[in-house]
Amino acid sequence: MDVIGVIPARYSSSRFEGKVLADILGRPMLQHVWERAKEAFLLDDLIIACDDERVANIAREFGAKVILTAQGHGSGSDRISEVVNPIDVKIVINIQADEPLIHPVMIDTLAQALLDDKSLSIATLMRKIENPQDIEDPNVVKVVVDKDNFALYFSRAAIPFRAQNSKAESGVYYKHIGLYGYTKDFLFTYKNLSVSELEKIECLEQLRILEAGFRIKVIETKYDTLGVDTPEDLEKVKEYLRKRQDNAAD
User: What whole-number distance in Å separates Cα of residue 59 and Cα of residue 50?
Assistant: First the structure.
């Protein structure tokens, strides 16, 4: 196979227990993610990797392919590694289970980039920030890139910082969207990297990759997502989908 998508779905969450099964307009959040991912053209297979029978049973009910993994994984990437280890595949797309608004084009964009450019090991997405409040929001991760769109740095702070004597007419800020595509080989390289100092400071796993000297391709997308970390985030997603349903009905 060329490309598979894996949705790591952990039941436990320090801020929102069982959030992957939280109801969104009559369907669990995980089902929303899976249904959107199923619409991607370039996925040869789509797997939900979970650590709890409650998640597995519900996922099977809505038709998903499920693999139960060990519970002790420290990250989604570790859980994905267990799943893809025996699979003959070139590219793996890591699809977050708490992104119910993910667009299938975002998945295809990463897959196509890695298929087209064999020099790439990992790719992710960014979107231009339109809401000024997001620039200072530490929950919105920012990214800066070089002229070839490889990541220079990711931060919860507002980067680039706008100096008082800056001659720039306007600052452009980009939100990092935590959808990743990587080669299977690089997935296992990443899995064996030690936790880095910058990662500890910012609590951003992708900094481990940069600090180890690897390059991350960052592709701009016009699509946005709304990750669910708290019950308040869940209500925002529900409101967004209700409005979209109402507009479609008009």
Answer: 9
